[in-house]
Design brief:
Length: about 300
């Protein structure tokens, strides 16, 4: 399940890239949420997660929908439309790094350590090398894509902080929370998204299948179910290690199967992003172990 989830999330970037040739990024997000909602809703219904009393917390679910779904998905979808899918996938490794920075600011429980400081520095050095903001290799598209990747990472990081402070204490089943979140996301997008040309995705059955099955059913619906299953079996800290896999998978698919060119600076930058992710996650594991030992004592 652990490796399957990493493969599903890592392959999402090539599906986003292909779909961006036919429809706009926000239309991709709308369809992704639409087709991802059904398996989640069925799972939540099957497990008895829904309860009418949850409606009084709709304001929390609205925030999660706007930031944790629309902002998160749109940021990475737009970035993937501007960058090679492998590079966009590599930049998804910034998510736990930026999430930790937000946690430092808004959660008193998080502390800085040498591992975390090095991890954050390494991650941002990697982004600098990929963006190449100076010299002959400057690329406005690269910089814009980088900024959208950061938007996606910050959005999901903000959603994590908000959920930890306001949603998790409510003790609502996660399957219900995510279903409410996706349902409200879909409603918001149906009200604001221009649907003109969205049917163009069906012109290519392979791209349409990638969007519906790869991004929607698997990359959103099934992925959420697997992720929370892993958390239940391995714990949240160990489950967070799955973030190592998508950047490697995304870059591998882009290079091997699609023929995307990866320049030396981009490869070095990707290595720094991956190293930063490893160091931040290592510090998180050490901190969790110390906390566990302290509680036992």
């Amino acid at each position: 399940m652990f490796w399957l989830l990493g493969m599903i999330w890592g392959s999402s970037f090539i599906y986003m890239k292909m779909a961006s040739h036919y429809i706009s990024p926000i239309q991709i997000v709308l369809l992704r949420v639409l087709f991802g909602l059904f398996p989640l809703a069925l799972y939540a219904k099957f497990t008895g997660a829904f309860n009418r009393s949850h409606i009084k917390y709709v304001h929390h679910f609205l925030f999660m929908a706007a930031v944790g779904t629309i902002g998160y998905y749109y940021g990475f979808t737009k970035a993937t439309s501007l960058l090679p899918s492998g590079i966009a996938g590599t930049l998804s490794g910034l998510t736990p790094i930026l999430s930790f920075i937000l946690a430092l600011i808004f959660l008193d429980s998080e502390k800085v350590s040498i591992y975390r400081a090095l991890g954050i520095g390494g991650g941002f050095l990697g982004v600098f090398l990929i963006a190449r903001p100076t010299g002959a290799g400057i690329s406005i598209t690269n910089i814009e894509g980088i900024l959208y990747s950061i938007l996606g990472s910050l959005s999901v990081g903000a959603a994590f902080i908000y959920a930890k402070r306001f949603v998790i204490p409510l003790n609502i089943p996660i399957a219900a929370v995510v279903t409410y979140q996706l349902s409200l996301s879909l409603l918001i997008m149906l009200l604001i998204v221009d649907l003109d040309g969205i049917g163009d995705i069906w012109c290519n059955p392979y791209v349409a299948a990638g969007l519906v099955l790869g991004l929607g059913v698997l990359g959103t619906g099934v992925a959420f179910i697997i992720y929370y299953y892993i958390i239940d079996k391995l714990g949240a800290v160990s489950a967070s290690s799955v973030a190592y896999i998508p950047p490697v998978v995304a870059m591998g698919i882009g290079f091997v199967f699609v023929g995307e060119t990866i320049r030396m600076l981009e490869a070095i930058g990707a290595a720094f992003v991956f190293l930063g992710l490893v160091l931040v996650n290592k510090a998180t594991k050490i901190g969790a172990h110390l906390t566990e030992q302290s509680s036992k004592e």
